[in-house]
Amino acid sequence: MEGDPLLAGILVLDLSSVGPASRASRLLADYGARVVKVGPTTKRGGVQIRPPFHSYGAGRSLERFQVDLKAPAGRDAFLKLAATADVLIESYRPGVTARLGIAYEDVRRLNQRIVYCSTTGYGQDGPYASWAGHDINYLAIGGYLACSTEAEGGAPPIPGATVADAAGGGMHAVIAILAALVARAKTGRGRYLDVAAAEGVLSLMSLSVDQYLATGEIAGPRATLLTGRYACYDVYRARDGKWLSVGAIEPHFWANLCRLLGLERYAEHQNDDARQDEIRAALKQVFAERDRDDWVAELAPRDTCVAPVYDLPEVVADPHLAARGLFMEAESAEHGRFRQVAPLLAGGLRPQPLHRVRDTDGTDTDRLLREASLSDREIAALRAEGAVE
Fold it and tell me: Which residues, in sequence order, are CB contacts of 30 under 8 Å at separation 6+?
């Protein structure tokens, strides 16, 4: 990619340690924003959760500011920093920022241009606003789990990715923040964003939800096209025990697949409900005759919508993903060198240089406060009081 990072010059304060808000700030940093992770001082017991060293990009391109927000001097120092920021992201329970004196209205009085993004599970108001939750809860309430293929005993499965945190919350927040920044460029004013991960999941489920609202058809497991009703959209085990995914929705892709598998007799019966068990059994029998990668080599390049089902070691060894520059290296004094997912969304900078992981105890507090126009004397006083570290 040529040119400056897309969000160069944008200052983001992130008060989260994990979850959707940290997903959002990770993406903003990958697009070139200057992201400052704001955490509590050790006097306040340290961060609520200290994520593993390798998570959230291993701190790649992030700065650190430790402050005691319950101390008046600490709160005031934070507000001076917030007065210079473009974006503030927080993930407290509803009402906490108001009690701390750092709510949207508190910051807006000092900075009319601030884009203030609150990320929670269920939003700032409504009957569930105070509920604690995690990814699986938001996927459950948004209908995602009930539409997924059942696990043993008929239970909804536990997904292999934190879809609610990453997409329902994190990407949801990023989209909202970027839209607010575009609007600010026209009006000069920021705004408040109430991001709820469960609502993001509902947005992801809109095809199925809208189908139900319009027709009454419930997209449960094996009930609709995208939940496995038809054999053309399913997974199949190969001879070596590995799996293939088939997504031949369009009739011409399905016809190609049937022809190449020697199952032309089913090309005209793609959506024939009465014959789906028969078709699925025939596909299982044919796919079991060869190893997965043999099938992929033959079918994937020939307009059949076939792809391998990878486990994680296979994902990171895949030549296509490597060729696209989706992985990079990092190095930690404590843990040595390791690979990690690079900034991979369109518009991010590739390739990335080696990321040297910072000491977990290091902060950028003094420099950030100087940039917020505090004098060395004022900073020393804050440190002496324990309001910042």
Answer: 57, 61, 343, 344, 345, 348, 349
